[in-house]
C-alpha cells in the first residue's frame, strides 16, 4: 500500500510541477509562485530519491545513508516553501520577510540531520524505523530532528491556511479544507513519531502502536494533501473543458442567425485566426452584432418589445430591404442587448433568436 501511495504521489507531483512551470512560462511569477514551484519540485525529487533503485545508486556511489538524508532534506525544503506559499501577509510582515525567517530553522535542521547521520553506524543508516533501530541514539536523533521540523512546518501551514480558509468560497474553500486536514494529520503523525522514537530510546514507552498510527496518519494525510493541492488544477481543467464544450455548442446554435445576417452583409465576417470553440463563438457574436448594428436603421423601433418570433420576421424584412436597397441609411442603434457581462451573456439572446431562425428554416424546408 505505501508503495502505491508513493507512486500515485510521484505522478501527481510531476503533473503539478509541469503545471507550475507552464504557469511561470505564461508570466505568473512572484515569490509565492516561485515558492510553490520549489515545494512541488522538492517533493517530487523526494519521492524519486526514496525509490529503491535511486536510493541504492545514491547509497552505493555517494555514501551510505545519503538517500535518506536527501529524502528528508527535500521534504524539509518543500515544507519550508509551503510555509512561504501559504503565509498570510499582514501589517509589518511580508512574504519575503517570512521566507528569510524560514531559512534559519531549515538550515539548522539540515545540518542537524547530516550530523546525526554521520554519527549513525553505517549498518543502520539504511534501516527502517523500528523499536530496535531507534535504540541507537544517532539513528533516533536523525528521526527526532526530521520529525520535529516536519511537525513545525506542517503546523505552521495549518495556521496559515486557516486564515485563507475563512475568506475562501466555493471550490477553493473545499480545497483549503482538504489541505488543512492533510497538514494537520501529517503534523500529528510527525509528533507521534517523535514520541515513539524518544520512547524507544528511553525504554519508557513501547512505540509499536505509535509507529503503526504514524504510518496510517501519514497515508491519509498525504492523500488529503494531494487531493487538496491538485483540486484547483483539476477544477480549472474541468471548467476549461466544460467551457469549450459549451462554447462549441453555442457557436453551432448561432450559425442560423449568423448565416442570415452575414449573407446580406458579408464584409462583417472576420478572418479566421483560431479554431478554438471560444474564439469561434466570440467571432460569431462580434460579427452578428456588427451586422445587426448596420441593419438597425431598417428595423422597426418596437423590435425590443416583441417576441423572438416577431423579431426574426423583422430581421428577415430588414435583410431583404438591405439587399434591395444596397445598404441602409439613417442612424444606427444597438440591438439585442446582452443578458449581462461576459461572452456567455452576450451570446445568450442571440442564441434564442438563432433557434427561432432555425425552427422557421426547418418548417420551410419540410413544407417544400
Automatic annotation (TrEMBL):
Give the InterPro entries listed for this entry.
Answer: DUF6545, MAB_1171c-like
Question: Among its keywords, does the record have Membrane?
Answer: yes
Which keywords accompany this UniProt record? Membrane, Transmembrane, Transmembrane helix
TM regions (residue ranges) = 6-22, 29-49, 69-91, 103-120, 140-158, 170-192, 212-234
DUF6545 domain span: 245-355
- Domain of life from the UniProt record: Bacteria
Q: Which NCBIfam families match?
A: MAB_1171c_fam
What is the protein name given in its UniProt record? Answer: DUF6545 domain-containing protein
Its source organism is Gordonia aichiensis NBRC 108223
Amino acid at each position: 500500500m505505501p508503495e502505491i501511495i508513493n507512486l500515485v504521489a510521484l505522478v501527481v507531483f510531476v503533473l503539478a510541477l509541469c503545471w507550475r512551470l507552464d504557469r511561470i512560462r505564461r508570466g505568473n511569477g512572484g515569490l509565492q509562485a516561485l515558492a510553490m514551484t520549489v515545494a512541488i519540485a522538492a517533493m517530487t525529487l523526494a519521492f524519486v530519491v526514496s525509490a529503491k533503485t535511486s536510493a541504492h545508486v545514491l547509497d552505493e556511489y555517494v555514501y551510505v545513508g545519503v538517500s535518506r538524508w536527501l529524502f528528508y532534506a527535500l521534504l524539509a525544503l518543500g515544507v519550508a516553501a509551503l510555509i512561504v506559499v501559504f503565509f498570510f501577509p499582514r501589517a509589518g510582515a511580508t512574504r519575503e520577510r517570512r521566507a528569510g525567517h524560514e531559512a534559519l530553522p531549515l538550515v539548522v535542521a539540515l545540518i542537524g540531520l547530516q550530523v546525526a547521520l554521520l554519527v549513525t553506524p553505517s549498518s543502520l543508516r539504511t534501516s527502517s524505523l523500528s523499536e530496535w533501530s531507534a535504540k541507537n541514539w544517532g539513528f533516533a536523533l536523525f528521526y527526532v530532528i526530521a520529525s520535529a521540523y516536519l511537525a513545525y512546518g506542517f503546523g505552521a501551514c495549518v495556521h496559515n491556511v486557516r486564515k485563507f480558509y475563512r475568506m475562501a468560497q466555493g471550490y477553493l474553500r473545499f480545497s483549503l479544507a482538504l489541505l488543512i486536514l492533510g497538514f494537520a494529520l501529517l503534523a500529528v503523525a510527525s509528533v507521534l513519531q517523535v514520541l515513539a522514537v524518544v520512547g524507544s530510546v528511553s525504554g519508557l514507552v513501547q512505540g509499536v502502536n505509535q509507529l503503526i498510527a504514524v504510518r496510517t496518519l501519514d497515508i491519509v494525510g498525504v492523500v488529503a494533501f494531494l487531493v487538496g493541492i491538485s483540486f484547483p488544477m483539476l477544477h480549472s481543467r474541468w471548467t476549461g473543458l466544460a467551457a469549450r464544450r459549451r462554447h462549441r455548442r453555442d457557436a453551432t446554435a448561432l450559425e442560423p442567425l449568423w448565416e442570415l445576417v452575414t449573407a446580406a452583409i458579408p464584409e462583417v465576417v472576420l478572418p479566421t485566426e483560431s479554431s478554438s470553440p471560444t474564439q469561434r463563438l466570440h467571432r460569431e457574436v462580434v460579427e452578428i452584432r456588427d451586422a445587426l448594428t448596420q441593419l438597425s436603421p431598417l428595423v422597426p423601433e418596437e423590435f425590443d418589445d416583441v417576441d423572438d418570433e416577431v423579431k426574426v420576421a423583422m430581421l428577415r424584412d430588414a435583410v431583404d430591404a438591405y439587399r434591395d436597397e444596397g445598404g441602409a441609411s439613417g442612424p444606427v442603434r444597438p440591438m439585442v442587448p446582452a443578458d449581462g457581462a461576459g461572452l456567455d451573456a452576450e451570446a445568450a439572446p442571440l442564441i434564442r433568436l438563432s433557434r427561432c431562425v432555425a425552427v422557421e428554416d426547418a418548417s420551410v424546408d419540410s413544407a417544400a
